[in-house]
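Handoff note, outgoing to incoming analyst
You'll be picking up this chain. Sequence as last confirmed:
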Amino acid sequence: TGRHNMDSYSIAKRALVAGLVLALAACDDGLTDINTNPNAPTDVGAEFLLPQSIRGAVEATFGAGQMLSHTAIWPQQAVQLQYPDEEEGSVRASRMQSYWNNFYVGPLMDVQRVIEKGVADSNANYEGVGRIWKSYIFHIVTDLWGDVPYSEALIGDSITTPVYDAQKDIYTGMIADLTTGAGKLSSAATGFGSGDILYGDDMVKWGRFANSLRMRLAMRMSEVDPTAAKAAFIAAYSAGPFTSNADNAKLAWPGSPYENPLYENWTGRDDHGVSATMIDTLTSLSDPRRELYAEPATQDGTTYRGQPSGKITQEFSLAYYSRIGNYWRKDGKSTPTVIMSYSEVLLLAAEAAKLGWISGDAGALYTAGIQASMEQYAGATNAPTAAEITAYLAQSAITYNATNGLDQIHLQQWIGLFMGGSEAWSNVRRTDSPNLVAGPDLTLSRIPVRFSYPALEESLNVTNLDAAISRQGGGKALTDRVWWDVN
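Most recent structure output, in case you need it:
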């Protein structure tokens, strides 16, 4: 889109100011009919800003560029069958700049205006939903880069060089916003109408999404600040997260020009496959999700064979390897993008129960989480059947074992988060599970654990960027950990 060509959120702000100056200059000189463009509104309603923000953030997070070339590559779920730069740890500066812009220039600015309109109009649902969705976007941004502009990033045109907030403080702010946002929602108040493309103005489900996301964020802090993490998790779990797959946060794609970004990639480029790590894991566990996640190699049409991760020299043709399942590719035009699932919530609860944070049977929650993961694909070609699910859960390798329960929970999170944006990568970084082995052609000391900062920030906001890098102990390279990554 056009916004991808903008240099940064600061450039967007300057453009906004310039537009306002030009508008004011067009004073009433008797030529009102000529000077007024009916197709260029001076104000955009929240019901138009929210869907723009949702769609933009989802396209950025779950698109082929960011996910299939980075955040699904490094947790060894997908592979680059051609142009494997990122497989060897070579990241293109232009892409880092583009991903940064794709969040700050569009979705974050749009949702901030939703919040502001909610406050100005005393519309609690606008403000509440805005705070929730803003926190969703910012948690993606900070988990990719670490310390980022947060408190000063969206507050006005007077600040074009915002400070970089410490990731710990960003987490505190996001959890507070999610709590406040959920508390403001009311089914009796005015909503977004058709503009709520996520939940159709179902404020109960928005509240459950907020609480579920709080659980994700709380667990993310579990290794670095367990006391705060436990308190935040208990509060979110008690407030009420997802209760079934019907609550899943997922974006439906209505059709051209709004189609699932993985389908769009299939129609134009389609040069990604499934990793050997994923294929081999699914095969060894007789996991029925294999037939959904992957296609048989076209060379013989029957064999599931993954490309080794971190390998840039191919021994065989593309036809030798399994491609990503047609549920997302050939048949994926209207496949919904799952932003957060009931399965993830159950597995987070299982981990919390195992840690002693909440009461409940960790094994039962773990089993329910696996079942929910498989059932969320009901109706899709190659979706696991009830009999397959029962057989899978009955296997000794799958049955919950308290001795290695955390490893089992983390492995199922990794499997269930396939094509899940950046979440699988974040979860692997937090848990170090599964224990991934770096590929033979990786040129770095470890599999990447963060995004690199965009080059324009070094030109436009270098003082604040340098302070953030220093605060993170040199947190600039792909191998430098973010705050919560201590494993």
